[in-house]
């Protein structure tokens, strides 16, 4: 079956991402962006799309989170051994930083697809004795340090990545930038072919580059002061040229990537629209994100699908047949996953979660715009709602970026609600959210809650993971859920479709009144609940997967 072996280094698509989250044991990711990158490459491997991933080694990970009794987040370096997951390569390249040569080496991990077809992922590493102390640490902390540290990392990723691929003998057909952290790769490509004039070279680079933007918030785009750019990259490339393409005042990495890319896209239809209004004059397409089914479907649903939708791993479009799976088998598979989750949570902390209780999951990065406290806006009302049936319990998880003080406060606020409400609503907070915990949560809760401020959720993917495990979504209509929600059929919305002023009180009202209806269905109309589980697998699981997503990238962006 392996007709395109790993040795074939021609004509691949290079996929550059600051983070890639393949597995909970390889902690080179922070959250959604990295998980998406990994899911993309896994689908490339399954579908034999010739590609190669490039990222940083992040030797100390993002961070390991513990939380004390008051809800204070404590951060430590992650301990892991790259040797257990990847092979150290002998090759070295250098990148110019502050007029010095910084040496970069690499590690390789191969992703094997369902047919055995393999995709290399290259992890760049500057921790070499030849480098001075400061530069050895460039590939240590994912999203750590200050702006200067970040720019050093982006030089290694963008410039070092292109040089490393060449050193390893690859000849790429395309370069896909997953977010702006790798935009400097365009400048490195521009330096090739010095024989032709600049306008021709720029055209050639544009033909090779693809850019995917992930944030609808202006402050979410990496920006660097030109004094810093000059300090680190002076002499590498003409500053006037960078200013022409990266912005007059600051170096805006998104703008730089846009100006060198022939194909630009947002990660959901709405996000495409928002990006077009943020960057007028650019043609910005939209390819809605997806998740890699074999990675995210839990054991019990895998078994269920193996019985009824045999070929789902190879062809996730087949999930459309889920509506025909017998109700009791769907429900039993779900209850087994739910019991596993509840046993796990109860073993971690003394939260006393119960199998029969409607369980809500809320897990993602803890930061203001995700609005984890919205569900606690009126605790009297919430308590009252929780009296129905066997009540209500909520499982939270999520890390706050070490510099996001508001995010850390939110964790404390959840901890205090947990105490305040403990007689009426059991609440658990699982420390150190990662891919492993995410898998348990998206398969073990009943209802997946997401309440972001609109339009700040570019896509969101955790709800897609829940879907394929028969967990229903209850979310604000933003990102992917605008496309996925058919009210009362695939799940429930909170608030309307409109953007503009995000009216908090109306959202709270809608959240609580719908939650009452949802409890009613869960406790007294099991038939409807199970039917909705199957509807959402059929209608949403068959679409919001990374196989469909990568096929759209191939047709729209990778093929000329
Ligand atoms: C899927 C995933 C995310 C993304 O979650 P969103 O709710 O889409 O923001 C973040 N972190 C981990 C560990 C994940 O698995």
Task: Please provide a written account of the structure.
With 560 residues, the protein is an alpha/beta fold. The protein folds into 2 domains: 10-290 and 549-558, Glycogen Phosphorylase B (Rossmann fold, 3-Layer(aba) Sandwich); 301-542, Glycogen Phosphorylase B (Rossmann fold, 3-Layer(aba) Sandwich). Helix content is 40%, strand content 19%. The protein has 20 helices and 19 strands. It has helices spanning 32-47, 133-136, 147-167, 184-191, 198-208, 226-233, 239-246, 253-259, 269-278, 293-296, 299-308, 327-348, 379-385, 405-420, 435-444, 462-467, 480-484, 504-524, 526-541, 546-558; strands at 10-16, 51-56, 64-67, 73-76, 87-97, 100-112, 118-125, 171-178, 209-212, 223-225, 250-252, 263-266, 285-286, 358-363, 392-397, 426-430, 447-450, 472-476, 491-494. The strands form 4 sheets. Strands 5-6-7-2-1-8-9-12-13 form a 9-stranded mixed sheet. It has a 6-stranded parallel sheet with strand order 16-15-14-17-18-19, sandwiched between helices. A hairpin with a 5-residue loop joins strand 3 (64-67) and strand 4. Helix 1 crosses helix 20 (546-558), helix 11 (299-308) runs antiparallel to helix 12 and helix 12 (327-348) crosses helix 19 (526-541). The radius of gyration is 24 Å and the shape is globular. The two termini are 26 Å apart. The mean pLDDT is 96. Residues 31-32, 35, 364, 433-435, 438, 460-462, 465 line the site of pyridoxal-5'-phosphate (PLP).
